[in-house]
Each structure stands twice: as structure tokens, then as C-alpha cells.
Specification:
46% helix, single chain, 12% strand, globular, alpha/beta, binds nicotinamide-adenine-dinucleotide, Rossmann fold, 8 strands, eight-stranded mixed β-sheet, N-(1-d-carboxylethyl)-l-norvaline Dehydrogenase, domain 2
């Protein structure tokens, strides 16, 4: 096989939905697979939303959008979803047990030639290589969120990934208009999430421990980060609070990091359990489509009348 024509994306959530849409836009024939009918329905809605974004921001014509839609198919039957797959990109939740179970279910259903890639944010392909039943045909392809503007894929091998697999995967990345980033050693978090997870966790610690409000943490970031447009809590909303919670909980448990576990519990209690799963549903830390950090005045010197409310928050708690 010289090139990937048929792609199956497993997991139709935030990232799976984007990878599927974008790859179809770039000419690949794509099946979107999920275990849940509700998730597939939501993904179809997101694809309609992406169609509008690709027209307004990427320059897609009506014909391009019709062709993209024609190349997409949706399924909740795994055997059906992978029957023609040259490549399966796994984008199921960042929970090792779910991924492991998925690969074991997938293994006996795949055509012999099919290559698999995980889009995991922080886990290693090594962790699942045995479960895939085809370690040499398995690697990591990690996409950045908001794929149409942040067109970046980190390519990472594990000890048994073959050169042929890496060649196919890298070709696929370039053919679909993504900037390939070579991760030269297998490492949890690649080049991007190694620092991004630390940033988000540190920001969340400030809020969990009541040191500052999420808006003030973002304000400090936006003021000093040389033209950044989104702060850590705006990023959490883009990533999705479920995925952030899963990552904090997993690494909190692995590293026995009590603060990280408290951060996971905070995100669950204040956001996930309240249905505030992020920008996709219009609510996370911020409310969309007009989050306060994008409002005029967010970074301005406030009116003098703000003094009392600021003093009230800064003064020591003398109870
Ligand atoms: N959100 C991000 O910014 C981002 C960026 C890069 C990578 N990732 C990674 O991509 C993966 C998915 O993250 P997400 O944010 O899209 O999650 P998500 O929660 O938005 O979506 C996960 C989807 O997987 C489905 N699912 C659950 N079990 C499944 C199974 N056994 N088979 C098929 N589908 C199943 C769920 O129904 C859901 O639709 C994770 O590994 C995450 O770390 C996320």
C-alpha cells in the first residue's frame, strides 16, 4: 500500500469528529465510528458546524463541502466501520481501560494491511501495542485541536513500529495538509502536551485552591503572553472538560499527585457534572459564543469603583 485512501476514525467526539471531517475534506474516504448513537448525532451536528467554518475560514466552496459530505459515512458497528480501512485513527476517551478494550475488540476485525494510530494526548502507543495484535503497524498520530487552523500532527513511534508504517502515516499527514512534527523519542505528552498539561494543571491548581479566579488567571496570561488570544481556561474549554478531567485523574493516580486528583475532582464537580463540557456545547469555564475574555475591556484598567470588590477578594480571611 503506497497511500491511505480509506480512513476509519474511532470515537466521534471533539477530536475524532475534527479528524474525520478534515480528512474527508482533503479527499480521504472516511467512516466515523462510535459506540453511541447520541455521539454520532452530535458529531453530524458538529460536521454541519465545521462546514460553515471551512467556508468562512478555510475558503471551501459549496462543491467542496458537498464532496466532503459525500466522502463521510457514520457507523456504530465496528466490523462494518473497519471493513475497508487502510488506517484506523483511535480517538476514544483518554482512559487506558477503554482504549485497551477497544483495541482488543478491533484486532480480529481488521484487514491484514490496516495500519492503526492512536490520537491519545498523554498515553504511549507502547501501552497498547500488544492489544492491537499488530505492533509493527501501530504508531501515534497526535492532532492539535481546532485542526483547520492549528494544522499540526505529532508523529511518534513505539519500539516495534515499522518504517513502512511510519512512511504511510507521515505521507497521510502531509497529504491531508498537516504539519508533521517528528517526536524523536517515545514520551508521554509528545512535544506539545508535555508543557500544555503542566500549564493547564498549574492554572487549575490556582483555581482549585482558591488563589485566584479563572478569569484572573487568564487575564494574567493574556496580558503577558506576547499576543496570546486564549488563556489556560479558554484552552480547557477548547480541549473539552471531560478530556481534561480524564488526563488529570489518570496522571494524578499514576504519580500519586494529590493536587492533580483534587484538580480532577474540581473539574468534574464544577464543570463535567454540570453539563459544562466545553465550547462544543456552548458552556465550559466560559459561556459561548461570547466568552468574557473576548469582551472589550477584559484586559483594561477597571473603573475606580472596582476597588471595594477587589479589596474584598484580596483581604485575609480572618474568621
Ligand atoms: N480534546 C482535545 O483537545 C484532544 C486533542 C488531542 C488528542 N485528544 C485525544 O483524543 C482522544 C479523544 O478525546 P476527545 O477530546 O475527542 O474525547 P471526547 O470525550 O470528546 O470523545 C470521545 C468519544 O469516544 C466515544 N467512545 C467511547 N468509548 C468508545 C469505544 N469503545 N469505541 C468508540 N468510541 C467510543 C464517546 O462516545 C465519545 O464520542 C483522547 O485520547 C484525547 O486525549 C484530545
Amino acid at each position: 500500500m503506497e497511500t491511505i485512501r480509506h480512513l476509519t476514525v474511532a470515537g466521534s467526539g471533539v477530536l475524532g469528529g475534527q479528524i474525520a471531517w478534515h480528512s474527508a475534506y482533503k479527499g480521504k474516504i472516511v467512516v466515523v465510528y462510535d459506540i453511541s448513537d447520541a455521539a454520532i448525532a452530535n458529531c453530524r451536528q458538529m460536521h454541519a458546524h465545521y462546514a460553515a467554518i471551512y467556508k468562512s475560514e478555510v475558503g471551501a466552496s459549496d462543491t467542496d463541502i458537498e464532496a466532503t459530505v459525500a466522502r463521510l459515512r457514520y457507523s456504530t458497528d465496528l466490523a462494518d466501520a473497519v471493513v475497508t480501512a487502510d488506517l484506523v485513527i483511535e480517538a476514544v476517551p483518554e482512559v487506558p481501560e477503554i482504549k485497551d478494550r477497544f483495541y482488543r475488540e478491533l484486532a480480529p476485525l481488521l484487514p491484514a494491511h490496516t495500519v492503526i494510530a492512536t490520537n491519545s494526548s498523554t498515553l504511549l502507543a507502547s501501552d497498547f501495542a500488544e492489544a492491537t495484535g499488530r505492533p509493527s503497524q501501530f504508531c501515534s498520530l497526535h492532532y492539535a485541536n481546532l485542526i483547520w487552523s492549528m494544522n499540526l500532527v505529532e508523529i511518534m513511534a513505539h519500539h516495534a513500529t515499522s518504517d513502512a508504517t511510519l512512511t504511510l502515516a507521515t505521507r497521510f499527514v502531509i497529504e491531508t495538509g498537516m504539519v508533521p512534527i517528528a517526536v524523536q523519542k517515545e514520551q508521554n505528552g509528545y512535544l506539545l502536551n508535555t508543557w500544555l498539561v503542566s500549564l493547564l494543571n498549574s492554572a487549575q491548581t490556582l483555581v482549585t485552591n482558591g488563589v485566584g479566579t479563572f478569569e484572573d488567571v487568564d487575564r494574567t496570561f493574556l496580558k503577558v503572553a506576547l499576543g496570546a488570544k486564549v488563556g489556560p481556561f479558554g484552552i480547557i474549554d477548547v480541549v473539552g472538560t471531560n478530556t481534561v478531567m480524564n488526563i488529570l485523574r489518570h496522571w494524578g493516580n499514576v504519580n500519586q499527585d494529590e493536587q492533580m486528583l483534587r484538580n480532577a475532582a474540581y473539574v468534574q464537580g464544577h464543570l463535567v457534572d454540570q453539563g459544562r463540557s466545553g465550547i462544543g456545547v456552548g458552556a465550559g469555564y466560559y459561556d459561548y459564543p461570547s466568552p468574557s475574555y473576548q469582551q472589550p475591556g477584559f484586559l483594561d484598567v477597571p473603573d475606580i469603583s472596582a476597588v471595594a470588590s477587589i479589596v474584598e477578594r484580596v483581604r485575609p480571611n480572618r474568621e
